[in-house]
Design goal:
The chain is an alpha/beta fold. It contains 10 helices and 18 strands.
Length: 443
């Protein structure tokens, strides 16, 4: 199937009129030379009708073909054929964990490969490789592979693999590798997971409880949105979180790890919380921007409608965790005497931003409250939380519900061939034009 990447260049075909005009312009009527007695004959005044005829038609054809080839070459021609994949399916594994995944599912993987399925790396590009060579190869640290979460890789796979092709994916089931939103894909997926450290599928229990108190005064709805996000973190990650929601400052218990002071005043100095998040003071200003967390590539920026601009130039922040699109701080921290005060320059309110409705809001809170907590656990527990099986596989939809899925093609670019033909035509046109001028000059 022939296609053009830049069909607007076909307007250049209008230049075909140029060689035609040149050929008509160069037509010169012959001069009549009177000889003998004819020179005395008076010319007849009757005018004869002239006919226009093109001369040197082959030269005209070469010039038209030359302009046509240049116009088509600029239009980016290519030939696309539907890709013929004779594979019966794919077996996909992550490059760093290839040996571990194979040891867990060796009988199944061997049977799939013997049945004719191809092995591909579960990474960007999905490179095909001989499985025996891949298993026995020494890991090459010089290969730079862009790291994606498993869900993002599945989204890339949806745009490259056939919807009917059986795909067998073997990965670990750690929650940290499933960041992002579950995307809708139209694939024939068979996803197998394992726990690398233990054969048990029970999640790791955090032995240290995290005590969080939410104080709401005039912002009760903000407190409910925040508590819902914290409850989602506890349910999904199985971390030990104790959350309290209070409306009276006297009910705030002592020795809290986090205090979310959702009030317009800042009378929290006498509280014994190690980390305090409070609304910054100032005049709310409407804006059209986004909330951009620092160093969070998997977070989809939430829209920002209202914010408070920091006007105190003397305030020195230890770090700025969130910014808007203009570089203004949205969440900044001041650390002093092993305590941290966080200033939030927006509210947890749908009228201020889209954080309450964002699927990534619990993820942001998780990174905020556990940034230093995990380092302080003396037992050295890492985040080996296991993802729930119901949240593992992407949402499988039909091709009709997922929209028109692009077909897989093999492309052959023809621009270089067109330029080569144009060069040959130009060379032939110059030779033929020089030959005709030589004939005219020499009679």
């Amino acid at each position: 199937m022939f296609q053009l990447l830049q069909p607007i260049w076909l307007y250049a075909l209008a230049g075909l009129s140029i060689p035609v005009i040149i050929h008509l312009w160069n037509q010169q009527p012959g001069k009549t030379l009177r000889i003998g007695s004819i020179a005395l004959v008076t010319e007849n005044a009757v005018s004869h009708k002239k006919s226009i005829r093109l001369t040197e038609l082959f030269l005209l054809l070469l010039r038209c073909l030359l302009l046509s080839c240049i116009a088509i070459a600029l239009a980016g021609p290519l030939w696309r054929n539907p890709a013929k994949n004779g594979a019966k399916g794919w077996v996909l594994m992550s490059r760093p964990a290839l040996t571990t995944a194979y040891n867990y599912y060796k009988p199944l993987v061997d049977s799939l490969l013997q049945a004719g399925l191809e092995f591909h790396y579960f990474e960007e590009g999905f490179a095909k490789e001989n499985f025996e060579k891949a298993v026995n190869a020494v890991p090459d640290t010089s290969i730079a592979i862009k790291k994606y979460a498993y869900r993002n890789i599945a989204a890339l796979l949806n745009s490259q693999a056939d919807a009917k092709l059986p795909l067998y994916i073997f990965t670990d089931n750690y929650l940290r590798n499933f960041a992002g939103i579950r995307s809708a894909v139209s694939l024939n997926l068979h996803w197998y997971t394992y726990t690398p450290d233990t054969a048990s599928t029970k999640p790791v229990i955090d032995p240290i409880a995290l005590r969080i108190t939410i104080f709401s005064h005039a912002h009760a709805n903000d407190a409910h949105y925040l508590k819902a996000a914290l409850d989602a973190i506890q349910q999904f990650s199985k971390r030990n979180i104790i959350t309290r929601l209070v409306t009276d400052a006297q009910d705030i218990p002592a020795q809290q790890d986090w205090l979310f002071w959702l009030a317009d005043d800042s009378n929290y100095n006498n509280k014994t919380a190690r980390n305090v998040v409070a609304y910054a003071k100032g005049k709310p200003l409407p804006c059209a921007s986004y909330i951009l967390p620092a160093g969070t590539s998997s977070f989809d920026a939430a829209k920002l409608y209202v914010s408070i601009i920091e006007k105190d130039s003397t305030r020195k922040f230890s770090d700025i965790l969130w910014k808007d699109g203009f570089g203004h701080p949205l969440l900044a921290v001041q650390e002093n005497n092993n305590k941290a005060n966080y200033w939030l320059y927006t509210h947890i309110d749908p009228a201020w931003n889209e954080l309450p409705w964002s699927d990534n809001f619990p993820q942001l809170l998780y990174k905020l409250i556990y940034a230093n907590h995990d380092k302080e656990i003396s037992t050295g527990i890492t985040d080996n939380t296991i993802i729930d099986s119901s949240q593992l596989v992407p949402v499988i939809v039909s091709g009709k519900d997922a929209g028109i899925k692009p077909a897989v093609f093999t492309e052959t670019k023809l621009a270089s061939i067109c330029w080569l033909i144009a060069f040959i035509l130009f060379f032939g046109e110059r030779c033929l034009s020089f030959y005709h001028r030589k004939i005219i000059a020499n009679g």
